[in-house]
Structures are given as structure tokens and as C-alpha cells.
Design brief:
6-stranded antiparallel beta sheet, 13 strands, globular, Aminopeptidase, single chain
């Protein structure tokens, strides 16, 4: 099935967009038409997912808050389209817009039956909220940047590189180096010369190691930023080698591509996070790593 992600444009699309909001979020609780809108509609960012024939299947909205955060509201997926990943697709588009705005974090008010969905996508519980229409609600949020100052970022980068070189000798031999960490993404590199094979391209094992350690590094940075402690291990991974690596390349992982909350580690529970890392040379994608890391609490 082909789905299209876009903003409503025509009058008919806007009508269908608001109608899905109403049918999913208001009508079952006897609320009046119009209650699915508020005074912030005109200045907000709107997204919807449509089918190949134009049917609106999922909707969501994002607006800015005065404190530098962005808020997701009115997330709704048609009952007939649930379980197909449309909610996650929609949320990612809203997150990307919040990142483009330079927002520090995303916040939303989740219904009880959606707690698991948002937790799986990296959201943590915030303040408690009063029930709405008799339904338990909870504020949830996720950061878009780990640390606030350049000095903090520099300190964490230095710590991470030292941790790699001191505890994983392979990383030092590979000359693994942190190119940049801006709080939102981590970029690492390894030169071709010490990592090449007989074909004068980068050895597949070196590519795998570079991608794995970059992903591991972003999990480690999250732990440090949130004062959490645990042992990070790779649970499983899938790597796609898309083209030979014949020059120095960089691995990049974004905080937004780390899915799964780490909060429960503070209560002594094991946590998991799915992480996407990509290897680039200039504007060419050379390899992609999709792995799940587990963080084990210290005994």
C-alpha cells in the first residue's frame, strides 16, 4: 500500500482532515462538532497521511510554545488504518519540523491507551494531567537536544572518545574520531588507510565497527546527559552495504533516530533502544545500520 504524507491544501482536504480529528477524538465522547479545533490552527504545522486514492487516514498538528518547546496535538489515526505504522510516520514528520524550528523538546498530552506507543518511540512521562472525557491523560515528552552549552558538548565528546580508545583497542587502531556532536547528532569518522581491504576499499568489518560504535556512542551520550548508568550492549543489528567505501567517510546518528525511552534504567530495569546510523561520503549514502542496543543496570 502507498501512503502520502503532506499538509492539507484544498478545502476538501481540510474538511477531511478536521473530520477525522472529530470522528476519532471527539465524537465517541459526545462532544460537539468544532471542539476538535482551537485558536492555534492558523499558526500551526499540519500533517496528514492519505491513501493512494486520497482518503485521509491519519492526522496530527504541531505548534510552538513560548518556552522554546513544541507541542504535538490532535494525533488521530483512522480505526481501519491502525497498526500499519501511520502514527509513527506522522509523528516523525512533526518531530522533524520541531527540529527545523530549533525547538528544545517536544511535548504532548497522551491518552492512557497511547502510553506504550509513545514510550516505544522514545517519549518519557512528564507531569500528571487531569482526565479528559473520563480518560486518563499523561504529559509525555522527548528532548531534541541533549545538552545546552558548547562547553558541555565538547566535554562529553572528549569523554566518549577517551572511553572508546581506552576500553576498545580496536577503536584506537581504526583511528575512530568524533567529528562533531551538537547535542542533536553525533558524527564520527575513520580514515580509509588503516581500515582498507585488498580491494583498496574499506573492510566490511571496519564499516560495521564504525557504525556500531557511533550508535553505541549516542546511547552513551544520552546516559551521561540524563545522569544514568549502565552497560551498553548490542542486542542485534542489520547492516546494509550500499556501495564500496573508497575514501574517508563519516557515520552520522541523530537523536531523533534513537527510538525507546531509557528512563526505566533509573529504577533498575533493563532498557532497549533502536538506533539508525548512516555512513556517508559527501552526499552519497554508503551503508546503513539499524540496531537495537540494550542497557543493563549495574548489579
Amino acid at each position: 500500500m502507498t501512503w502520502q504524507l503532506s499538509a492539507p491544501q484544498s478545502e476538501a482536504q481540510w474538511q477531511a482532515y478536521y473530520n477525522l480529528r472529530y470522528q476519532v477524538l471527539r465524537a465517541p465522547w459526545g462532544q460537539a462538532p468544532g471542539s476538535e479545533r482551537d485558536e492555534l490552527e492558523a499558526g500551526s504545522f499540519h500533517q496528514m497521511v492519505t491513501s493512494a486514492d486520497g482518503e485521509v487516514l491519519a492526522v496530527g498538528r504541531l505548534h510552538r510554545l513560548d518556552d522554546g518547546r513544541a507541542q504535538v496535538r490532535y494525533m488521530a489515526v483512522s480505526p481501519a488504518a491502525q497498526g500499519k505504522g501511520l502514527g509513527a510516520m506522522l509523528l516523525m514528520a512533526l518531530e522533524r519540523q520541531a527540529e527545523a524550528w530549533g525547538s528544545s523538546a517536544i511535548v504532548l498530552n497522551a491518552r492512557e491507551n497511547a502510553f506504550g506507543f509513545y514510550r516505544k518511540l522514545g517519549y518519557s512521562f512528564g507531569e500528571e494531567l487531569a482526565p479528559l472525557y473520563g480518560i486518563a491523560h499523561q504529559q509525555m515528552w522527548r528532548p531534541l537536544s541533549l545538552v545546552a552549552t558548547a562547553q558541555q558538548r565538547e566535554h562529553l565528546s572528549l569523554q566518549l572518545q577517551q572511553t572508546w580508545h581506552q576500553t576498545i583497542p580496536l577503536s584506537a587502531y581504526m583511528q575512530l574520531h568524533i567529528e562533531a556532536f551538537d547535542g542533536r547528532s553525533l558524527v564520527c569518522s575513520a580514515p580509509l588507510a588503516p581500515n582498507k581491504n585488498l580491494h583498496q576499499s574499506m573492510f566490511a568489518g571496519a564499516i560495521y565497527s564504525l557504525l556500531t560504535l557511533t550508535g553505541w556512542g549516542m546511547v552513551w551520550l544520552q546516559l551521561q546527559a540524563n545522569n544514568l548508568d549502565g552497560d551498553i550492549v548490542l542486542a542485534n543489528a542489520n547492516v546494509r552495504y550500499l556501495a564500496p567505501v573508497r575514501a574517508d567517510a563519516v557515520a552520522r546518528v541523530e537523536l531523533l533516530n534513537c527510538r525507546g525511552s531509557l528512563d526505566a534504567l533509573a529504577t533498575g530495569k533493563r532498557v532497549r533502544q533502536q538506533v539508525l546510523v548512516q555512513l556517508w561520503h559527501e552526499d552519497q549514502l554508503l551503508a546503513e545500520f539499524d540496531g537495537r542496543f540494550a542497557v543493563l543496570p549495574h548489579a
